Amino acid sequence: MRTLTRLLPKLAVGLVMIWAVATFTFFLVHALPGSPGDAAYENYILSGMSPEQAQAKVSSIYGFTSHDPLLVQYRGYLWRLLHGDLGQSISYSGVPVTHVLRAAAPWTIFPALAGLVIAFLVGTSFGAVAAVKRSSRWGGLLSMSGSFFAGIPVFVLALVLAFLFHTEWNLLPYGDTSDVTLTPGFNGPYVVSVVQHAILPVATYALLGYGAWLLTMKSSVISVLGDDFILAAELRGLRPRTRMRYVSRNAILPMFTVFALSIGYLLGGSVLVENVFDYPGLGNVLFQAIGARDYPLMSGAFLLITVAIVLANIVADLLYTVIDPRVRR
Amino acid sequence: MTTWRVLTRRPGRVIGLLILALFALMAVFGPYLYAGPLAVDPNAIYSAPSAQHWLGTDFAGSDVLQEIVIGARYVLETAALSALFAAVIGTLVGLVAGYHRGPTDSVLMRLTDFVLTIPGLPLLIVLSTIWSFGQPYEMAIALGVTGWGGVARAVRSQTLSLRERGFLEAARGLGLSSRHVIFRELLPNLAPFVAMNMLLAVIAFIGAEVALFFLGVVPFSSSNWGVMLNQAVFSGGAMDSPAALSYLLAPLLCILLITIGIVLFLDAVDELFNPRLRERS
C-alpha cells in the first residue's frame, strides 16, 4: 500500500513526461519548413490524383491529415498514439513505424543491458575497493579510472575500441550484427558471429557505465564506513569480511539512482555506439530517420527511447522501495 | 597556501593543470599562429608524420597539427560558453529551489527531472532538424539549455545543507531580504562548488558538440575536431587504412588528453572543497 502511494506520483510524472515528449515531437515536425505531408500531397496532385485521393493517401501514409487545423491533427495524433499507432515510415515506404522499431529494439536493449550488468558488477566492486583503500596508490588509481571513463565521450571510446580491436589487432569484427554470409537461425557459426559482433558494442556500453557505478559506490562506502554501527562491528572484533558485508549491504542503496541514470546514458549514447559499429538498433534508426527526413520514424524512435528511460526510472524507484525498509515506513 | 600544497602533493594534479593550460593557450593563440586558410597539397595526401608535418596530413594534404590547433578554439570556446550557460541556469534553479523549498522546490525539481530524463544527444539531433545550430554561441545555447539539470540538482542539495548552517540562520534572523541572503550569503559559498560542476560540464559538452559534428547533423561552419573525425571515419576511410592513422587519432587523443587533464585537476579541487576526502594518516 505504502509502496503504491509512493509509486503513483512517480507514474503520473512519468506519464506527463511521455506526453510532453510526444507533444514536443509533434509540434517539432510541424515547425519544419514544408512538412513531408505537404510535399507528398503536391507530388500526388502533380502525378494526376484528385485532391480527395491525394488527401486520403497522404493521411494514410503520414498518419495525419495535413489540411486540418493543427489542434485537430494533434488530437488525432495523441489518439492514435494511445492505440500504439505511430504512423507509417517514409523511408521504408509505408511500413508501420512500430514494425521498424520492433525489429531494431532488441539490438539496442540486449547489448545495453549486458553492458549495464557488467558495468554494475565491476564498477561497484572496484568502487568498494577504491573506498577502503582510498589512501593507497591503487585506490587512487581506481577512482581516477572511474572519473576518466565517466568523462570520456561515447564516440571516442567506441572509435578507439573499434580501431584497436579491429583495425590494429584484427581480433574482433564489427559492422552489422553478424557475418552477412551466414544464414540467420540457431546454428553454431551464426550464434558465434552474433556474439563476436556484439562484443565491441557491449564493451563500449560497459565502459560507459563503469565510471558512474564506481564513483557513486566509492562515496557511498566512504560515508557508510564512518557510521557508528561499523565502528561497533570493529570493536566487537568481527572479521573484516563480515564487516565488509555490513558495509556493502548498506552502501548499495544509492546505486539505484545510478541505475536510472545509466539507462539514460546508455540509450542516449546508443546513437553514437550504433553509428560507429554500424549496428541496426534504435539509435541508428533515429539517426537514419533524420538523414532521410523520415519524421514519423524519427519521432517514434525518439519517443520510444524516452519511454524506456522513464520506465527505467520508475522501476529503479520501485526496487528502491522494495529493498530499503526505511522508505516504506 | 593550502591550495598550492594540495595541488603539488600528487604530481598528477600539476600535470592536469599543465594540460589544461596548454589547450587554453592553443585555443587563444592557435588561430593567430596559423593565419589564413588551410594549405592544401595534392602531392602529400595522407603523408606520414615528418619534420614538415608533425602529425602527417589529411585526405586533402592539409597539415593535421594545423587543423587541430585551429579547431581547438571552436571546441573549447563552445564548451566553456555552454558550461557557463548551464551553470547560470542550473545555479539559479537549484538555489531558488533549495532556498524556498515547499511548492517552488517541487515544481522546479520536477522540471529538473524532466530535463535530466530526456536523453540529451537524441534530443539535440532531433532539434538539429529544425535549427542548424552550428555557430559557437548557437551551439552553446542548445547545449546549455538542454544540459543544466545536473548542476541544478547538485546546487539544490548543497543549498539545502548550507541553509541549516548558523550564518544563514543569523542572516535570516536579522530580517535580511531573501535576495540578499541568496546572492550575498549563499552564492559566494556555493561558488567553488559550482566551479567544480562547471569543469565536469566542460568534459560533457566537449563530448556532445564533437559528437554532433561527428554525426554530421549540424552544418560544418568551421573546421574543428568533430568535423575532422566525421571526415576521417565516414569519407576518409580511416578505420580501414593505416595511412590515415594520425588524422583519426589526433582529435581523439586531444579529447582524451583534455578529459585526463580535467579529471586530474578536479582531483585537487575535490580535495580542497571536500575535507572529508583528505587522507587520514
UniProtKB/TrEMBL annotation, chain B:
GO cellular component terms, semicolon-separated: plasma membrane
Record domain ABC transmembrane type-1: where: 72-266
Topology class, membrane: Multi-pass membrane protein
Keyword Transmembrane helix appears in the UniProt entry: yes
Family annotation (InterPro entries): BP-dependent_transpt_permease, MetI-like, MetI-like_sf, OppC_N
Transmembrane segments: 12-34, 79-99, 111-131, 137-155, 193-218, 244-266
Listed Gene3D superfamilies: MetI-like (1.10.3720.10)
Localization of this protein: Cell membrane
Classification via CDD domains: TM_PBP2
Keywords: Cell membrane, Membrane, Transmembrane, Transmembrane helix, Transport
GO biological process: transmembrane transport
Main location: membrane
Keyword Transferase annotated: no
Family per record: Belongs to the binding-protein-dependent transport system permease family.
PANTHER family per UniProt: D,D-DIPEPTIDE TRANSPORT SYSTEM PERMEASE PROTEIN DDPC-RELATED, OLIGOPEPTIDE TRANSPORT SYSTEM PERMEASE PROTEIN APPC
Protein name per the record: ABC transporter permease
Lineage: Bacteria, Bacillati, Actinomycetota, Actinomycetes, Catenulisporales
